[in-house]
Amino acid sequence: MKDITHKPESMRTAIATGKLYAPADALQLLKDRKTEKGDALEVARMAGIQAVKNTPQILPFCHPVMSRAADVTYDFQEGYVRAEASATVINSTGVEMEALTAVSATLLCIWDMLKPHTDQDQMHIGDIHLLKKTGGKSHYLRQLDPAVKVGILATHPDVASGKKSNKAAEHLKALLEKYQFEISEFDTCAGELQDTNQRLQAWLQKDIELIFTVGGTGTEPTDLTVEAVQPLLTKELPGLMETARQHGQKRTPYALMSRGIGGLSGNTVIVTLPGSTAGVEESFHALRGGLLKLVSNHRVA
Question: In the chain, which residues have pLDDT < 50?
Fold first, then answer.
């Protein structure tokens, strides 16, 4: 199965459709809900809803998801009945396979219940396809053109002195480059209040759209990044770090210790990330889509 550990959750929907072609008399029985096995449309609807819940048992690479809504509707046309299946989840993975499985199960159930009433060579199933899906990476911004210009400042005395590797900031740089951000500045400092503040002020005079600090967001006496950044923000946006902490909290209880903040300094977005590689990874994936939208909203023409 694909690793979706770091993917943020979002509401995801999918609608799939398909058709069962049959003789007119069989379709009329179906429409009148008079097939000998019972109400075929309602039974098939239940089969479709059940298929949404059981898709991972049929398709081995589908992740189990908790469905929030599922339904099947019908539309009769000359020569066929069209079924439409919908599914909704709040999850890290999409639900299109569930919708496609649901419409397939619905049509197969109708076929089974129409068998006593017509020759099977007079029926066939076709045109099964995905009509629509929302949520996930295809629904939200994935990159901007031109690429977002980013500055990364690692704020830790041991990193600045070379006693400790700059692993977390380097990992952030690699993630940003993977997703086609442009690294304009990359530096380290000891995390002292005035020095950090002055370095960031200098970057704010440049053509940088997004600034990340890495480290100094914890509870130690030397963790002063938040204090250095806060005076620079013209508009604090609590939702940024609320989102990152919530995402991190589902993966480690230590996320509650992060005091990180984020917001706007003029048209530049500033985000303070933890100093661990895992904290950087989790926060970046939680924030990426929202940050792209935020930068897009505040780009200077």
Answer: none
